[in-house]
Amino acid sequence: MPAAIKRILCIDVGGSGLKAAVISPSGKYLVKRHRLKTPKHRKPRQIVKTLAELAAPMGDFDCVTIGFPGVVKNGRVISAPHFGTKDWKGFDLAGAMSKKFGKPVKLLNDADVQGLAAIRGKGLELVCTLGTGFGTAWFRDGELMPHMDLAHLVVRKKDDFDIYVGDVTRRKISNAQWNRRIKKLVGVLETVFAYDRLYLGGGNSRCVNFKLPRNVTIVSNDAGMEGGAFAWSRHKTRA
To answer: CA triplet 194, 132, 172: central angle to 5 degrees?
Structure first.
């Protein structure tokens, strides 16, 4: 991380809310979290405008990290399942926000950002976000691996993981049945990934109410912003 970077604007783009805070390179909040409701019309123009409004009361910052709910590459959105991929595909969100802010911007998948705050930096660590949909991030010894959009693997009939454990489904089938699905999902992920640790984050992780295996941990939803600070360092480990 360049020595000049001391204040990082970290933005978490969610299906129901947009959150931002200014955070130090070590993950300390320098300006408390601010939240705005996600616009009803979620096309790029509306989101760019609202993110600029969200950042207005944050004061000075040196750079920006944005966690976005979709696949992103080189600052551009590849898919946006909950915002409308047709409208977003190929949109240079990092470039648009850099122009707005006059600062360098990194655009990452939101689960990847949350994972940067959650992991310990040892062994194989999997981070799953339970929110509007389902997100994943995969790490090896603290290094973020290439993003895999596991949310769209079909798990039941035509339902992918995004639908199978997403918020709309949770509200429809009851928390008890949703928890049974999450418990089954944890077992499937352990078989497929043979992870050393699994972290469950996102807004709906608070709804998990069964006893978790010793190597599975619930993490704060604020990790979705805190991880944005670590995105500017090459490698992040924890003691």
So the answer is: 100
Interstrand relation of 72-73 and 105-109 (parallel, antiparallel or unpaired): unpaired
Using CA atoms of 152, 158, 161, 163 in order, give the dihedral in degrees to the nearest 10.
Answer: 110
Quote the crossing angle between the two packed helices 110-118 and 223-230, to the nearest 10°.
80
Give the ranges where 28-84 is alpha helix by DSSP (H).
Answer: 44-55
Handedness of CA 92, 97, 103, 104 (dihedral sign): negative
Residue 109 burial (10 A CB sphere; 0-12, 13-18, 19+): buried
Give pLDDT tens digits for 52-70.
Answer: 999 999 999 999 999 999 9
pTM over 0.85: yes
- Cα gap 16→192, rounded to integer Å: 31
DSSP assignment of 128-151: EEESSSEEEEEEETTEEPPP--GG
Alpha carbon of 57 to those of 24, 37, 46, 104, 134: distances in Å?
17, 16, 19, 19, 31
Q: In what order do the strands lie in the sheet with 134-140?
A: 143-144, 134-140, 124-130, 197-201, 216-218
